[in-house]
Structure formats: C-alpha cells, structure tokens
Write a structure and sequence with these properties.
CATH architecture: 2-Layer Sandwich
Number of domains: 1
Helix content: 25-40%
Radius of gyration: 17 Å
CATH topology: Mago nashi protein
CATH class: Alpha Beta
Order of helices and strands: HEEEEHEEEH
CATH superfamily: Mago nashi
Distance between the termini: 51 Å
Largest sheet: 7 strands, antiparallel
Shape: globular
Length: 140
Amino acid sequence: MKYLFLLLLLVDSGCTNSKINQDAIALEYTTQTRGAYNAIAINKKQVATVNKHGAKPNIKICSETAWNQLIKILKTVNVENVPNLKAPSEDRFFDGAAIAHLKITYNGKIYKSQPFDHGNPPKQIAALVKEMLSISKNIE
C-alpha cells in the first residue's frame, strides 16, 4: 500500500510539473558590497548580466539545455518557502562576503530570499544558485 501511494504521488507530481508555464518564470540573483554590484537575470529566452549599478546589461540567448537544467533544479525547490530560508552564515555582517539575494518570479508572483552570504546560500537553493552562476559565466 505504501508503494502504491508513493507511485501515485510521483505520477501526480509529474503531471503537475509538466503544466508549468515556463514563459512565466524569471530568476534573478544579485550580490552587492559597498563597492561592487553584480546581477544575473535569467528567463527562458535570455541571460542578462550586470557588473555595476547603472551599467547596461550584457544580454545573451539562454540555451535550451541551460534552461532545461535550471527548470530541473527549480522543480526540487519549494518556491513558496524561499522567503523563509535562513542564511547558514553571517559573513556579510562584517564585509566578509557580499550580500546575496535570489528572486524567483512565477506568473507575476515574486518569491525573494532573505539576504545570505554570496558563496554560501541556504542548502535548499544552493544547486539553483550554483547553476545560475555557471550559466552566467559560460554564456557566449
């Protein structure tokens, strides 16, 4: 009986996940210190990076492979809980790390994380942040 329930749960989750409107998803990751600012904005069509306040964004096409990998990771994240995640460290309090935020927008609703140290996100979003950073560094 336990296995039947698990199977039904997996089938139901698969059906629900396939109905995600990927055109309505946008991801943003920002870091800042007193003298530096970086932002990454990714949606299904493009990756935009900014390396200082007021600078013009560097916009590139988001590959289908990169987007699919982000969606795969995003499906493992409880998006509604993102605003409640606690930072695992506090180096940003004494300039030991840049202050970072993750913002997920879906169908106009925004889920923004609490501040955390760049390089040490809450474990629930760590894979997503790592993938976003990788995509932003590897765009052509």
